Structures
1.
Amino acid sequence: MLSTLPLFILNGLFYAATLFLIASGLTIIFSVAGILNLAHGAIFMLGAYLATLTMLTGDIRLIIITFIIVPFIIGLIGLGIERGLIKWVYDRESEYQLLLTYGLSLVLADLVRMMFGPQPISASFLLRESGVIDILGVTYPVYNLIVIVVALFVGLLLWLFLDRTRLGWIVRACSFDREMSSALGVNVGLIYAFTFFLGSALGGLAGALIVPSTVAMLGMDVNALIESFIVIVIGGLGSIRGAFIGSIIVGLVRSFGIYFFPRYELAFIYIIMAVVLLIRPRGLFGREYRRV
Amino acid sequence: MHILRSIPKEYYIPISLGLLFLFLISFPLIASRYLIFLLSLALIYAIWALGYNFLFGYTGLLSFGHAAYLGVGAYTVGLLIARVGIKSFEILFLAAVLTSLGISALIGYLCVKYTEVYFALLTLAFGEFFYALAFKLYDITGGSDGVSVPYPYLFGYLMDTKLLYYVVAVLFVILLYFAWKVVNSPFGKTLQAIREDPVKAEFVGIHVKRYQWYSFILSGVYSGIAGALYAPLFAHIYPDLFHWTTSGEVLFVTLIGGHRMFLGPVLGAIIYAFLRSYITAYTIYWPFVLGLSVAVIALIFPNGIIGSAYSFIKERYFSKTVVSK
Amino acid sequence: MAETRRDFLKVTGAGIVGLAVGAAAGYYLAPPKIVEKPVPQKPPEVPKEPLKIGVITILSGPGALLFDPGLKALQMEVEKINANGGILGRKIELSIKDSGGKPENSVDFFRRLVEEEGVEFVISGSTSAEAIALAPVAEQKKQVLIIEEGTVAKLFEEVDTNPKYVFRINNYDILDSTSLAIAMKKIWPDVKKFAVIGADYAWGHDTWDILKGAIEKLYPDMEVVAETWPPLFSQDFSSHISTVIAAKPDVVALVLWGGDLVTCIKQGVQYGLFKDIKGISPTGGEYVWAAGTDTPDNLLMSTRYYFTYPPWDKWWPNREFNLEFHNRYPDSHGGWPGFNCNSSYYAIHFLKAAIERAYAIYGGWPTQEQVTEALEGLMIPGPGGYRYIRPEDHQSLGYAITGLTKQDPRYGFAILDPIEAVPPEEMAPPPGVKWKDWIKHWGEEYL
């Protein structure tokens, strides 16, 4: 075990990286707009499928701009969903918002099936081309490291954005107190729309990043949704920092759990959630939850 | 209208229940066997949603793990038939009531300590715990393949689809009546007071946690009964009965009907069961059509179909003042 | 609402009276039971209207990758049969339902098809759970059900032990594993340590149990050094692969299918899994098509049918079936029919042959019972060679295929080459014997 210890840490971080990107999108939308977006998993899946379009071409320049274009397109789709549908239900009971996004998730997932068909799509050009390196005598794919670095970088950007820019302050202000922000002259509707753009783009980026090392397949939305949801619960609802730490915890526990308790992998994530909730009911970095 | 007015008010409920019962009992005379099957399913969903709404609509607690108690009821009946060989539905039914009672009492006791979204999450975690049990105890539960459940016997008669329908219909009417009594009893009013403001309720001397616990148990038992009927209807049980997507279904059924109305979950369940069955049968793109229908319902009926229809009619025909928009 | 005890009793009493009245009315109004008597009569003429056949299959969700090509093959064959005049002059009409892999949807559809739409036969291409849910319903409704997949061994061992109306026309779990073990013994006679990455659900555990049982017979000193059980549809196998590599086995069994197998192989290559460790996979043969050029050579896989076997130059039905499918659906599933397409072929042609056989015997459009009699012991040719339905347990057997993967630029993916086909009789228990008892005495001749 000792010689492969770094490997298991890296595996855990790799898993955490995509989980963090999906979860941060979910948590931003939840904290600002107060909507638990059940369609977020489908958004992630759509990102993965869209990315296969360029990745199958094998043109490296095209593939690199994929990581900008796909999040942008997915962000626009999120924006469209917000402006077209979700805008009308902000002042409804939150359960009806759930119902709406649940319906949307079915629709989006089925659109993917209509457009891309039922066969899994494997587009591993980038994984193959980036090669492998030797870590303490064990082979490790470079692409996994790229994913980890990109996720860290995106996390850093997000933190800088929310903490150091004017727009970021406004977004955070809206998440704390909607009425007050509105009274201070903030166009809250615009901020909500922007949040949906940002959150969906993060989901799309996660999809595009994960595709080379796995396959785009139907059903990937359901697992992504529940796992990222649990991550934001562990970290504390609405907290980016929480999503960051939460995904690392889930990634590492899963990675080592597979080694030590391979038969119970199914239950890992729920066990983590139950333990965290019993110790800290609000999650690791959660503030008092109130209904928006 | 005059005849209606001459009937004393307290007879409204038994009369309408009697009429409903007459309709349900005579339904097999006019309907095909398939429709009987489908209505059984719809009524089972209705019982489940009715129970769910004690907790959700009347107590204001959103559970995201209510598939657990449906599953407990179904697995109690299914495993006792298939593994133990008990064939008498009276015993099976009683066993399902008792197990769902015991398990919802235990889990409810742990969950009501939490509020709002954390309550929902804890119920979700417990639901998934049962899912994992059904999934992993392969030798007993058959894992993801599930267990095939032979028909039980009711008082010595083989409980085929038709007899099962009568059982479902009778139980549905009884449980509907009981639910009506409960929500209009002092107990039900207490629950609603807790829903409106738990802090205030505590202040006036209501033991909030205890009442929430009672409500949890009550809805757990209703779910268990629904599960006990579900197993013989499909003659098969499998772990997805416990899954969070199934828990989501009962929430959405309740919302489609309207959780503020007593009959909301019942009609939501019937609408949903028929809608789903017909959509899945007539298009292979059923997730798209179903999702679209659900989204449209959520958009145009802010209080669910029954809730919104009720407030529309009330506003339109019974409001004295003209409401300006 | 201040309600006295007396009022409450009154209302309750009224309710109970209402219930009782309703019950009595329902009892008397219920139609009398129709007692069916066997009346000797002339065999029914062949009806003029089209023959309706219900199809319950999976077209949404991850399972669709298997059944969507299967449905295409079924439609192709039905079109061909119709162009040649149908079955006894009746054109076939398919009523297709997508269960999404959910047993309760399957049962709902089965009832709808039989009771509402009046289909005469039902073909189900679906999961093991759905097969287990459907079989008892079909037996109870006395309705012929042809199961294309649902390959779990316990269907005829435990659930439907004395089948009358239910038939399974695909090879099942046992053959996937036993044939794989034998092929491995021939190629790698000296391996000892085994590891498994298996999908954590009933099929994964069943298949690994059978495979392990078979390996124990052929390699008496085998040991299992690592087991990992990822849940279905995992997107990341890196930790499973690392666990297996750390245990240093000789062989890793990938008991996965579909996108899971593709992902695991892709990531395995990156982690150097197949450098020193040999890979085997039951039923993996056609799933690696989706992996394209990522599949390494020399992974040993079994399958229930492979499009290159029997060789096209020796067995024209296979050539004809493959080329027609390829021309029609060049984009589907690598462009070539998989084992589900093969079983679709047999499903519809077994039905056709059975109806015609029963017609020849009884001289009229056959009843459900006559079709079941005709199906029992029936043998027909098809793409995968001759298939035979065992009359005792309604299980149909065909060649069990194994082969080593080999990249082939003509296809753009790894095909099985060389291919080995084992006659099924030695690979599966005889009717009425459970596999756990059978495997104790199996395989001595291969040692």
2.
Amino acid sequence: MAESAEPGAAPLIALRAIERTFRLGEDKVAALTGVSLDIGAGEYLAVVGPSGSGKSTLLNLLGLLDRPDAGHYLFEGRDVTTLSVHEQAAVRSRRIGFVFQSFHLVPRLTAAENIALPMVLAGIAPADRARRVGEALAAVALTDRAGHRPDQLSGGQRQRVAIARATVMQPAVLLADEPTGNLDRTTGEGVIGLLESLNRLGMTLIVVTHDAALAARARRQVSVSDGRIVGDRIRAA
Amino acid sequence: MRGVDLLGLASGAAVGSPLRTALSVLAMAIGVAAVVVLTALGDGARRYVLDRFASLGSNLVIVLPGRSSTGGFNPANAITSTPRDLSVLDAAALRRAPAVLRLAPLSVGTSEISYGGRLRETVVAGTTAEFMALRRFALAEGRFLPESDWSRATPVAVLGATIRAELFGNREVVGELVRIGDRRVRVVGVLAPVGQGLGMNPDENVIVPVALAQAMFNTNTLFRIMVEARDRSRIEDAKQQVLEILRARHGGEEDMTVITQDAVLATFDRLLTALTGAVAAIAAISLAVAGILIMNVMLVAVSQRTAEIGLLKALGADPKVILGLFLTEAAMLAVAGAVLGYLLGQVGAFGLRLAFPVFPAFAPGWAVLAAITTALVTGLLFGLAPARHAARLDAVIALGRRP
């Protein structure tokens, strides 16, 4: 068990003996077994492991997209495993941002509209939305691309739009699943740099990757193998 | 989520796939248009028939000889004699009824009318001077039958407009002698054209004094007695008084039938309204088909946008919001179809009115309202299953995040 980055404070995320099993036909496949993990606010953490190790399942659970079969998940001190789907949706809306490998932008919406989408779903007033979209576009240096649709943007620009969308609700934690997986190395560097700058501003950043070089940049590395946490290292500052 | 944003997102999604949106809107539009046009036709037929029937005159009570057997076997029928015919004296006796404004006996037969070598088959109506006022006829030329004793067979005739045109063309007619059957009769007037009536067309009739008609056809019975009540509220009184007087004259036997124009109109009205409703219901089947098409289109939309639904869930959309989005989209397709169909239907009804000017083909308000409501309800009903499917999707699977 690793110690929290900020000793004394309650951890942002606390997983306790999480179990997750999938049914594949007749067989039961244990995706996660006895996973316990504390993550403090403001941490920069990489989850590494080979494909099929359970790291994606771990990210799904952390993002409240999936429920554990056993164990408890305390998010900001609150047990979120027992929440209804509506309460979980509200937590996702306000406290969790997602960045996906394949961007998942809505193709018929412009960059600005894609960024505004979480605020539209949360029912935030249009005037407020416009201001925050403007700020978010400026933060990812895409102000001049506001009216472009995803098919008019490069891969790196799309991922920056996705990052702006993930952060526009000012979540407590940003979950990134292979954020550079569909990008070339130089563009990937830029995207990682952007995520790291957000982390320096205080946002908790959790990156799932199988890329050792990318994982090495994080202050803390959690290794997953066969559904278990097999390593938890903090890089010397 | 705000209502405006819901509409914006849903309409964006609908416009995003123009072909499938256009097809489902078209299907719904055809359904609504079919209801509008067919009910316009049905209701037009109803009005047409009612208008024609109303042109007989107003506040009419009509006496027919014989008992109409609507009650099945009546034991009284077994012991009574054959019904007595109506006579001119019966008609004259009805003048005593206080609720009766005017009345006219009617004796009808077919005969030949000839003039200057031209000969034509015609319906000869024997009646009295009051018939003109009772039927609201207007004269084109000359006078109507003279006010005289009903028993006098004065050899005069009033011609219908068509008869006049066919026998005389443009020639002078009042004062000419024509031959009807084997009698020579002087023409005293011509009726203004009235157009098609119900049953008999007055334009093709020849009107003579009732005594002359009875002499021609060698009878002393009447075809009808036409009675006009003093006003609308006294139609029922007039009917009762007429029945009472005739029953007394026929030895207590009710061997005649008295019908009121209102009752006949009401029967026609009910019959034709039911017919219009049936036609509308048949057309409404196409609305159900359109609803199923919308369901199909929405199911395709859900499977095409699975990743988008997963994304919305990841971004914190409540299942209710996703349900709302897809229901709104289905409702929009239905509304667009209903509005388009309403306009198409009205254009169709307008076209019918242009093609058949005598036919008042207006879609009744209830039918239009019912069609649009049905369109909306089917749209929402058939949109519900796909929308629920979308709302219940597993976000992890929808995002393709499970290896």
3.
Amino acid sequence: MMEVIGFLMRVLLLKGFLKPFLWLFLGVKFKYQEKLDFEHGKIIIANHNSHVDALAILCCVPIRFLHKVHPVVARDYFYKTKMTRILAKLILNSVSVARNKEFKSPLAQCEKLLKKNHSLIIFPEGTRGKAGELQEFKHGVSILLSKYPDVSILPVYCEGFGDLMPKGEWMVLPFNSSLQFGRSRILAENMSVQEKTNIMKQEILSLAPEQKGVQHV
Amino acid sequence: MIFKLAKLSSLSVPFIEIFLGITGLLILFTLVFGLWNKKSPSPGMKEIVVRIYSWWIILFLIIFVFLLPGDFATIVTAFFTFVALREFLTKLEVTKHFRKTILYVYLTIPLQFYFAKYGSQHIFNAFIPIYMFFLIAMRNIVLGNYKNYLEFNGKVFWVLMLIVFGFSQVSFLRHQTIIGGYEGGSELLILLILFLTQFNDVLQFLWGKTMGRNKLSPNISPNKTTEGFLGAAFTLAAITAGLASYLPFASRWEAALFGLLLSTFGLFGDLNMSAVKRDLGVKDMDDLIPGHGGILDRLDSISFTLPFTVQYLIIRGYL
């Protein structure tokens, strides 16, 4: 019962309110290179600049797959208080990973979901970085991919989201930005973890629009 | 038939006449320039075809907005102003500083459009140039930082004037213009100004293409020629003189003078946006409509002719 209510709330919030809000008011353009399909498990990887990122990606997931896509959030940040915990569960439908060494296998929950053919949204940078800069990628996704080689990755580039709501700011302001979905692909099994991580970084960067040409700083 | 249409839509007869005339002209232009572009494509030609398409969109929007009742027109105009402002602010790197002030910059839009409809002429004309001038500075001072202070104040204030002050003039015309003895009403005046501004762009291109020798502003826009400008200005003056009975001016001569000035301001508006884009180092302000750029790429001349028209009407005592 709780799950059904949560699902309906998510549909209403994401499709009914958030997507039009992002598009009309904040000025986010959604661009796709292929039709989004989460029939089989996928890991959506994206650069991370603000809290808007995960919400914007979730907005684009078709309703029939919405229950199957889970953003991966940091346990120490989102599960700190009961309030954020409920919000993260209900609205984001999220799973958590521990960034510290609190648990033996921090990715256990993610693995369980991948086994069920569900999809994950992971920000390999691990934390929100500065707008326009890509930080060093963590290896979590590559480790997951080594265990589940038939899971494909779907690269996404969030452009300009750091301006909408930078780290440490709570005021969301409109600026033109875009969410660029790439093509999903399966990485070859025999690649090393480091190679996979490098390829993912390239995939995300290849979606970045041409240098905006802003000369003036 | 025209009378029937006028009764149905509560628009004046002159409005319907001009509207039908423009639609006919647009159909003609679409055919002629579309074929010309197919036969001998050139960058300038493509620009004109794109401009003609944007006319169609503007024309439909105008009709849509004028036929729907109440505040709809104001809200739609305010929304487009908002999109244009967002487009420009995105391109300004300086907005990363004094981020909290940007909220007030956006809030200017609902206030300015409220004043355009309900405010006095004074508050409408003073709100951005005077009140916002102080408010932006004061908000930044409260934020307590001086880095990029001058650059932020200068650029953001200028953008507010160009976009919010400029585009809100159309709502001011729509809601607060009652010109004695002018039966067309504000709808017709707006339609004519938008149309004449766009037509002026095409005239400049045509005169420049056939007679153009001397570049008017080689650094800012290499397509513009002195001959193109003069030819368009006098042609537009002849057109406004011919349409004098549809314009609110006292005499045919004044209508001609208005056409001449309108053409000049249109040229400056066009060059203004070109200079902005060149300074920013971008080709288009946005990629809202693929191939057509953003809103500001289409509304360049209008951003100067609209404020000019309102100020002209005020100075000459029509408002």
